[in-house]
Amino acid sequence: MEMNMKKGFLIVLSGPSGVGKGTVCKSLLKRLPDLIYSVSATTRQPRLGEVDGVNYFFKSREEFLDMIDNDKLLEHAEYVGNYYGTPRDFVEQTLNEGQDIILEIEVQGALKVKEKFPNGIFIFLLPPSLDELEDRIRGRGTENDTVIDHRMTAAVEEMAMMANYDYAVVNDEIDLACKRIESIIIAEHCKIRPNR
């Protein structure tokens, strides 16, 4: 008996700003070379070392609004004065080819994706504590106190939305967080689903 080609899994990793989503995702991609990373678009300025088309597609506000108007985004959200969004075509093509794809996005965007992809794997990345989260944000050295206060308020609000996710993973150590996420992906591939 021949197995039908199955669709890939959409894995959504999100959590509050400063929790280490980017670092965990980068490490996870090294551990799982077949996992495809979905590059988001944003209107925020690049941080030191970030590369257009690798970390984000850096867009002007006008370019981003044009993508919204032309239905080129799977989701988009405004966060701390900047737009973030997931380009639609690449995600759908990757899933249809049977490959897993990971989205590293903010909580607002993740909840919009869940409306369109309820069978996705939604993972909420938590800091060990709020104090540790604030230390991480301050350690970046890229935001002033007003922005940091806003991010901390947003973090508390976002953590209250954790119930909308399938899994919660504490990012206490990057390697341990990656092992936990890898275990989740393996378990999901072994799960029996009527539609797969």
Describe this structure in words.
By secondary structure, this protein is an alpha/beta fold. The chain has a single domain, classed as P-loop containing nucleotide triphosphate hydrolases (Rossmann fold, 3-Layer(aba) Sandwich), CATH 3.40.50.300. Helix content is 42%, strand content 21%. It has a five-stranded parallel β-sheet with strand order 2-7-1-8-9, sandwiched between helices. It has a four-stranded mixed β-sheet with strand order 4-3-6-5. β5 and β6 form a beta hairpin. α1 crosses α7. The longest helix has 17 residues. The protein starts with 9 loop residues before the first strand and ends in a 6-residue tail after the last helix. The mean pLDDT is 88.
Write the layout of secondary structure elements.
Elements: E1 10-14, H1 21-31, E2 36-38, E3 40-42, E4 56-58, H2 61-69, E5 73-79, E6 82-87, H3 88-96, E7 101-104, H4 107-116, E8 121-126, H5 130-140, H6 145-159, E9 167-170, H7 174-190
Parallel strand pairs: 1-7, 1-8, 2-7, 3-4, 8-9
Antiparallel strand pairs: 3-6, 5-6
Helix pairs in contact: 1-7, 5-6
Task: Describe, in short, the structure shown.
Helix content is 42%, strand content 21%. By secondary structure, the chain is of the alpha/beta class.
**Beta-strand percent range:** 15-25%
Low-pLDDT parts are: none
Q: What name goes with the CATH superfamily?
A: P-loop containing nucleotide triphosphate hydrolases
At CATH level 2, the architecture is 3-Layer(aba) Sandwich
* Count of separate DSSP helical elements: 7
Mean pLDDT: 88
Structural class comes to: alpha/beta
State the distance separating the first and last CA atoms.
16 Å
The proportion of residues forming helix, as a percent range, comes to 40-55%
* Envelope shape: globular
Looking at the structure, the CATH topology is Rossmann fold
Radius of gyration over C-alpha positions, nearest whole angstrom: 17 Å
Please provide the count of β strands: 9
Task: Look at the structure and give the CATH class.
Answer: Alpha Beta
Instruction: Please describe the biggest sheet, giving its number of strands, its sense, and whether it closes into a barrel.
Output: 5 strands, parallel
Q: What's the SSE pattern?
A: EHEEEHEEHEHEHHEH
Pfam family, one: Guanylate_kin
Domain Guanylate kinase-like: 8-186
Protein name: Guanylate kinase
Binding site for ATP: 15-22
